[in-house]
Design a protein that fits this description.
The complex is a heterodimer. By secondary structure, chain A is mostly helical. In chain A, 76% of the residues lie in helices and 0% in strands. Chain A has a single domain, classed as MetI-like (MetI-like fold, Orthogonal Bundle), CATH 1.10.3720.10. Chain A has 13 helices and no strands. By secondary structure, chain B is mainly alpha-helical. Chain B has 2 domains: 71 residues, no CATH class; 222 residues, MetI-like (MetI-like fold), CATH 1.10.3720.10. Chain B has 11 helices and no strands. In chain B, helix 1 runs antiparallel to helix 11, helix 6 crosses helix 9 and helix 9 runs parallel beside helix 10. The chains are: A mainly alpha, B mainly alpha. Chains A and B meet through helix 6, helix 7, helix 10, helix 12 and helix 13 of A and helix 1, helix 5, helix 6, helix 9 and helix 10 of B. Chain A: It is found in: Cell membrane. Chain A: Belongs to the binding-protein-dependent transport system permease family. Chain A: It is a multi-pass membrane protein. Chain A: Pfam families: BPD_transp_1, OppC_N.
């Protein structure tokens, strides 16, 4: 009995650190990433709870008496052209922008990963067809096409907007996953599994995908940051969310009016700073995750 | 080598064809046409219909596409409905502005990024390195339009260091020194913004390349022969690390093109990116389609250029 316990101990000591442990160690070593992660979680949860408490209809009601009210007692962050509180719009806008970025990341992530894994594993004509499509998407001016797309949809909704963006954003993920899956499918364990008669489907999703999980997490995290940037950028240009739906980009777009940019800084600056800090935070977390995915870069 | 270039160039043709078909169909689906905006209670609906017929807007789409393609290959993209001049002339004028803006940006980019990358790589893990890495990190994270607005606010409106709109002061005549200086002056702030945003890639590449080179055999050999460290850097490491930067040039162009939509719109700079946004607003199909085709072509050209330079510079990655 004692012997057995002993053995268990030895096994535990010599077992290599698993994914979660490595990630945890990496974050413990990198204080900034740890801080970013905690701050991000608090801010995102905070934004969602706060947004629930805001009466959006009351918030979006125009009140000309408060036009461009500066920050003060009545409005903590001032008001915009319609006398609508900036703080409330910032919270609702952040909620919308984050939600949209999460959805786009999930859709493009799932699609890109599935396509990438299938192409990388099977190769052949499936791979060829998808690679041509991916090549095409990567060499086109996608920002312009998204803008054209958004203008041709007569009454587009948030769902439509998410789908349009997703069409143009999945290819880089698919290409990355494909290249990783390609090298992974040449490994011995895959060959062994093949000889045992395991189906391709099972090998791909039960054996290869878990081994790529750390890379996939990094890719999704950084994609999320990118998607926040794309949505807010398009909303800024006026091709994003419908005007009645606040987004961080819409708030910043008020600065297209030189008067607002010069004198009413409270309208656009808070949203700009919010985006900047959120992007920094996500990227710090992404870097730490990337280090845990690549043994050569690890700190801990 | 030549075979590769020819093959890559040939692949561009079907890609451009698919792009043209895509953008043409999309433009056709746009709500309203250039004449919708002109309808007032006084206009005769028959007159509008006549204009539509005349512009060929009532033909089946494939006929319109064939017509458009035939003329497009000859460099004729039709006439802009808004500006009443040929699309090629219109884009030509704007392209010159965008070209100069990109060139000045590219020069500034290398002036900023190369020294920073070298310092970070050579003095790895020192305070200077950490500051540079932090800088490139912030720049990487900040969206184009946010940095542009903050710069415009700070350096344009608050400090009055730079003009805030346009590409030249109207008081100068073309060709004079004042005119040229005014052009450069107007270009400077958007170009600096552009350049700063693009520095991350070059800095990180140079830094990791130099750190890599330090442990290479050729560096150790040179050191063991008694060559001073500064000479090893200038003669060996830099030469090997700087060349691939040249290969990024193509990608830099691509990046600048993508950013031009934001930068030109925010800085009120009359280039192709700004033209695109205003054409979308006025449903100027001919200009929209021509611009997308041009950007698509330039993007393809940029990546082809990068591959060619890369294969010349680094024989290890020669494409077969």
């Amino acid at each position: 009995m004692a012997n057995k316990e002993n053995k268990n101990e030895i096994v535990e000591v010599s077992a290599p650190a698993t994914g979660m442990q490595v990630i945890f160690r990496e974050f413990k070593k990198d204080k900034l990433a740890m801080f970013s992660l905690i701050a991000l979680v608090i801010v995102i949860i905070g934004v969602f709870i706060w947004a629930k408490l805001i009466d959006e209809q009351a918030l979006m009601r125009v009140s000309l008496r408060d036009k461009y009210a500066p920050p003060g007692d009545k409005f903590f962050l001032g008001a915009d052209q319609g006398g609508k509180a900036i703080l409330g719009q910032l919270i609702i806008g952040a909620k919308n922008s984050i939600t949209i970025a999460i959805f786009i990341t999930l859709i493009t992530g799932v699609f890109g990963i599935v396509v990438g894994l299938i192409c990388g594993y099977f190769g052949g004509w499936i791979d060829n067809i998808f690679m041509r499509i991916i090549d095409f998407f990567i060499t086109i001016p996608s920002l312009m096409l998204i803008i054209v797309f958004v203008t041709i949809i007569p009454k587009y909704s948030i769902t439509m907007f998410i789908l349009i963006l997703s069409i143009f954003i999945w290819p880089p993920t698919a290409r990355l996953v494909r290249s990783k899956a390609l090298s992974e499918s040449r490994r011995d364990y895959v060959n062994a599994s093949k000889t045992l008669g395991t189906s391709g489907f099972l090998i791909i999703f039960k054996e290869i995908m878990p081994n790529l999980s750390s890379i996939l997490i990094v890719e999704m995290t950084l994609n999320f940051a990118g998607n926040v940037g794309i949505e807010t950028g398009l909303s800024f240009l006026g091709f994003g969310l419908p005007p009645s739906t606040p987004s961080l980009g819409t708030l910043i777009s008020y600065a297209n009016n030189p008067l607002v940019l010069q004198e009413k800084w409270w309208v656009w600056l808070p949203a700009s700073i919010f985006i900047l800090l959120m992007m920094l935070g996500i990227n710090y977390v992404g870097q730490a995750l990337r280090r845990s995915a690549d043994a050569k870069q690890r700190l801990g | 080598m030549w075979k590769t270039i020819v093959r890559r160039t040939l692949i561009m043709i079907p890609q451009l064809l698919v792009l043209s078909l895509l953008i043409f169909t999309m433009a056709k689906f746009m709500p309203g046409d250039p004449f919708t905006g002109k309808i007032t209670p006084e206009t005769d609906p028959n007159r509008i219909e006549e204009l539509r017929e005349l512009a060929g807007l009532n033909d089946p789409w494939y006929e319109q596409y064939a017509h458009w393609m035939l003329r497009a290959v000859q460099g004729d993209f039709g006439k802009s409905y808004t500006y009443k001049i040929g699309v090629s002339t219109l884009i030509g004028e704007r392209a010159v502005n965008t070209f100069w803006l990109s060139l000045v940006s590219a020069i500034l980019l290398y002036i900023i990024a190369i020294p920073l990358g070298i310092i970070a790589g050579r003095y790895q893990d020192t305070l200077a390195d950490k500051v540079i890495v932090l800088y490139s990190f912030i720049v990487y994270a900040i969206p184009t339009f946010v940095l542009s607005l903050i710069f415009l606010f700070l350096f344009g409106y608050k400090l009055h260091w730079f003009p805030t709109v346009g590409s030249v002061d109207i008081q100068y005549d073309p060709g004079t020194f004042g005119y040229i200086w005014s052009k450069v002056y107007h270009m400077l702030l958007p170009a600096i913004t552009y350049a700063i945003l693009a520095t991350t890639g070059v800095i990180q590449y140079l830094r990791s390349e130099i750190i890599d080179s330090k442990s290479q055999d050729y560096v150790r050999t040179a050191r063991s022969k008694g060559i001073p460290i500064s000479k090893v850097y200038s003669r060996h490491i830099l030469r090997n690390s700087l060349l691939p930067i040249a290969a990024f040039f193509g990608f830099t162009i691509t990046g600048l093109l993508g950013g031009s939509i934001f930068i030109e719109t925010i800085f009120g700079y009359p280039g192709m990116g700004q033209l695109f946004i205003s054409s979308i607003a006025s449903r100027d199909y001919s200009v929209i389609t021509a611009l997308v085709m041009l950007f698509g072509f330039l993007t393809l050209l940029g990546s082809l250029l990068s591959d060619i330079i890369m294969s010349i510079v680094d024989p290890r990655i020669r494409i077969e």
